[in-house]
Amino acid sequence: MLSCAALSATIPLTLTACSGGGTASAQASPGAEPATGGIVQVLEKPDFSHLDPARGFDGGVNNFYRLIYRTLTTRAAAGPHSSGTKIVADLATDTGRPSDNNKTWAFTLKKGLFFENGSPITSRDVKFGVERAWDPDAGIGSPYAKQVIAAPADYQGPYRSGDLDTIETPDDRTVVFHLKRSYPQFASVAAQPNFTPFPKGTGAKAAFDREPIASGPYRVASYRRGSALKLVRNKHWKRSSDPVRTARPDGFVWTFGLDAATIDERLISGQGKDINAIGPKVQPATISRLRTPQLKQRTLTGVTGCTTYMSLNTTKGPLRDVRVRQAIEYAVNKQTTVDALGGSALATAATSIEPPSIPGRDATDVYPSKDGTGDPAAARRLLARAGFAKGFTLTVDTRAAATEQAVAVAIQQGLKRVGITVKINTIDTSTFYEVIGTPSQQHDAALTGWCPDWPGGTTFLPPLFDGRTISAKGNSVLSMLDDKKIQKRIDEIAAMRDETAQNAAYGKLDAQIMKLAPIVPLNYTKNVVVVGSNIAGAHPSISYSGGIDLVGIGLADPKK
């Protein structure tokens, strides 16, 4: 999935650390079991990209979706003894029944499933929800349904093309998917947001971005774009049918539009309702303030499992020449991008596309340099061979967030060393992925990131580098790489039945792709978050970019 990195600010923090949230003995442990009741406050700067699960696809919004939506399968809740990566049954009775060498998958829905209006959830609702992934306007989110489910080349979703025959519903509780090829990991695909069921015929013209139809434990009570969102209990959700969501709080309230430094201050101070609040990862300037016993007790850390990278559009100008792209690989000073993100506490320099959390990952660095600082001499030689000894100008798309801006400047300075002038194009965070995922709007390069949708190379390399999936909207192949040899190897690896061998093969493919230099892997990110003193059930999940898994969170004392 696209990386939803937390926003940052460079405003200095002046409140002393000793003001944070009372004594350690008076605070609940963030990992303790929450009580039932109360309202969890969530402080954020950007709004969600989309409330429609066919449109949104990043770590932050995917985490949110599980509060209001359910899918055939889902990830287990993160906890003291769970990483939150195991796929378990959700709406379905199991994680699917494969046949025909994993090319056909059948699921049976549990009994007693309902939408927020009380109408039953049927197999036809699941089918319709998945079909929306092909809609040219709505289907800009997770790419996996379109990549693995068989469909006519001209199919454009249920609103334009009607029913998709390769998804069958023989009765109200059975849904059968026919795939393009053997796909042993389809149970993980069925956990993607765009497998959310909806009543047939609903959701046209971005209706779900305004008024979602809930199938999970909460429903949207009110929503003001860019300002606030309120969730309340969905009375038609049954805990007995849901093995994952504890739904301990009575509701959630998101407050958007807050400055990142302000969020840090509020969580550290812990005044009023902020004792019941969570937020994004802290800013680099805040790290040194989290050393007191009171704040240490409220601090959670962990890896995100994500790679931050700069895509290089292989169809634009000088970037068409692989030698130019390779020169950029050498010219970038990755260590300065780590510094821009807050140093080693929040990131480490990347040596490959896949992060260390991916099984079978090969850490081979195709463009090595001392301490990741780059090799300008090697870059200049490649530029000279390509006919660009005097350099050129390129434009990099990035988000309107302080850390992303700082990374862009680090890239700018690194490339300046070899005569490449970088122009920084800033895009609003809430629309960033939609813009760069539209090839007609994308510039030469983009600063972004990718996180695995489940642990394995399948969710890292094919979505980013299989040129057959390039689309006019919702495109994840930002490099526009369309290489037949890479595609052939992707197909060969996909056909492997042994998952261990498959992951090892993807590890080797990583280096093969990097020789074509379609992206510059910059760093592997980490999370450091502070929660309110009354927060309980807070466990980071690598499945959601290292953020706190929302399905298990709650309050220690709902009366506070």
UniProtKB/TrEMBL annotation:
Ranges for region Disordered: 352-371
Gene3D superfamilies found in the cross-reference section: Dipeptide-binding Protein, Domain 3 (3.10.105.10), Periplasmic binding protein-like II (3.40.190.10)
One Gene Ontology term from the biological process aspect of the record: peptide transport
Signal peptide: 1-28
Keywords: Signal
GO terms assigned for molecular function: peptide transmembrane transporter activity
Cited PANTHER family: ABC TRANSPORTER SUBSTRATE-BINDING PROTEIN, PERIPLASMIC BINDING COMPONENT OF ABC TRANSPORTER
Name recorded for this polypeptide: 4-phytase
Organism: Streptomyces sparsogenes DSM 40356
